[in-house]
Amino acid sequence: MGGKHTADILPPDAGGIAQAAELLRAGRLVAVPTETVYGLAARADRVEAVAAIYRAKGRPDFNPLISHLAQIEQAEALAMLDERAMRLADAFWPGPMTLVLPVREPLGVVPAVTAGLPTIALRMPSHPVMRALLQQFDFPLAAPSANRSGFISPSRPEHVLQSLGNRVDAILDGGPCVQGVESTIIALRPDGWQILRPGPITQEDVSALLGPPLQVETDTIEAPGQMTSHYAPGKPVRLHAEQARSDEFMIGFGLVAGDVTLSETGDLAEAAARLYQCLHEGAAASQPVIAVAPIPQHGLGAAINDRLRRAAA
Ligand code: TXA
Ligand code: MG
């Protein structure tokens, strides 16, 4: 796909959605808006379309993709949903939650989507443009975050244009992502549940419905997105900084001021929504180092600190 022209930007109206749908139906790659981050989408039931996702991202093929759907019936056709899954789906879908569930045979997506695992990751996004798009299909869309593998995730269409602009056919413009960090990934095991990636749905939210999580050592292989280095801005990142040093671009929070701030009022939802935009600005800044103010660990802070630790690794 090397010599491709820059992606068309499609407006978030009926015409733009129809164009995106037509490209996707034909097996092409389209960057799509969700409430968390932009996704690099292709139909999940076509070998070539899914292979194109891995190629465009430079993603290792052992790292499985999330399948995105509009209807609970589609989830039931792809996976085994028990009573816990139905309770979570009722509470948090459509929304920023991904469930890792046992696959239902025969597998309804191509094997590359699950990377050969006996489980499949499913999500029903709430972004109205993405929902309108998904409602046009009877197949799921596989979509990882629309960034080159290992780099900062995209929370705005410009971010996609910068990193994958000549590797996708189009970008459906849904504006800035309101949540700003990727969905919470929850694995439902026979003996309990586990958060594989913290996100907008917090551990407390899930515990309120299912009781406390499994007490196990998290294995890193099963959610390869949990690899230590990820979301990398291409320069060193110093965390828990109270004040910028002379060579640092400072990302502030609350009372700690900066060149930019995640949230002047110390609001964690605002900080999550602004996180990747601030990291992109830090990556583009002239200073060789990025410093980030301390972020509390409660609620959404767990997801923000998880991403920051990986950006700094
Ligand atoms: O918010 C999101 O989840 C965004 C938007 C576009 O929906 N997508 C996203 O995709 O973050 P990606 O590919 O960047 O991250 C998906 C994560 C990866 O860490 C992958 O390893 C994990 O989901 N995953 C996928 N299938 C899995 C499975 N069967 N078991 C465990 N982890 C799985
Ligand atoms: Mg990602």
Automatic annotation (TrEMBL):
PROSITE patterns referenced in this protein's UniProt entry, alphabetically: YRDC (PS51163)
Catalytic activity: L-threonine + hydrogencarbonate + ATP = L-threonylcarbamoyladenylate + diphosphate + H2O
Boundaries of every YrdC-like domain copy: 14-201
EC numbers: 2.7.7.87
Subcellular location: Cytoplasm
GO biological process: regulation of translational fidelity; tRNA processing
Annotated binding of ATP, by residue: 59, 63, 119, 145, 153, 197, 231
Described purpose of this protein according to its UniProt entry: Required for the formation of a threonylcarbamoyl group on adenosine at position 37 (t(6)A37) in tRNAs that read codons beginning with adenine.
Full protein name: Threonylcarbamoyl-AMP synthase
Species assigned in the record: Altericroceibacterium spongiae
Taxonomic lineage of the native organism: Bacteria, Pseudomonadati, Pseudomonadota, Alphaproteobacteria, Sphingomonadales
